[in-house]
Amino acid sequence: MTLLPLALSLGCLSDLGHQAPSAYEVETIENVLLVWDSSYNDYDDGLGALIPVDALVTDEEENPQSNIRVEFISGSAGVYVLPEAAIQEVDPPDPQEAGSNCTPGAEDYDIENCAWYDSDSDRYFELSSTYSSEYKPNYALIATDQFGRARMWIYVDTLPSSGDDEFDPAFVTVTLGTVNGTSTIKIETSN
To answer: For residue 151, what is the enclosing H or E element?
Structure first.
């Protein structure tokens, strides 16, 4: 009886691509440098950085491979991995609109009703309607597209801190679940 739920749950993985052979590799950016200070580093304040990340999966001859499972794992609280479908760009909030305080960085910022502000691109984003505002995942599993690419977004809400304006790096692991198929993205500050 306990094998049936396990078998059904494993069957769902086929929708997320195939397991990569051990010779496949994953390539992605290795370092992200952010301009960051303590005013950005509060949880759920609407300030952060939204970073697009492409992972490319190739075989031993460096040919891109489609429909391969890629895992994204954040090793830091306050650093979230979001699938491309979860993010949509929106217009800046109207400061004259009554109700919620949507001024990024404000002490009474309303995370439930306001868009995220990406300080690097000066754009506003929010989760698409199919995702909850409580959606803050540290793990995602997606399949590569026809070009061997898996696109994710990393949302940095906070970075590990070792004091005033002193920030430790955050890490996101991108893996195929094989020995050769692992890459690490280091997110650090320029100050």
So the answer is: strand 149-156
Torsional class of 56: left (φ above 0), alpha (ψ -120 to 50), beta (otherwise) = beta
pLDDT of residue 115: 76
CATH of the domain at 174: 2.60.40.10
Any domain includes 2: no
Alpha helices in the chain (DSSP H): 3-11
Q: Torsions phi, psi of 88, nearest 5?
A: -140, 140
Whether the CB-CB separation of 125 and 135 falls below 8 Å is answered with no
Report the run of H or E that residue 174 belongs to, with start and end: strand 170-175
Is the pTM above the cut of 0.85? Answer: no
Report the C-alpha gap between 141 and 83 in whole angstroms: 9
How many domains in the chain? Answer: 1
Strands 182-189 and 31-34: parallel
- Residue 6 lies inside a defined structural domain of this protein: no
User: Residue 117 has which token pair?
Assistant: 């502000």
Q: What is the pLDDT of residues 32-64, one digit of tens each?
A: 998 888 887 887 777 778 888 999 999 999 999
Does the residue 146 lie in any domain? yes
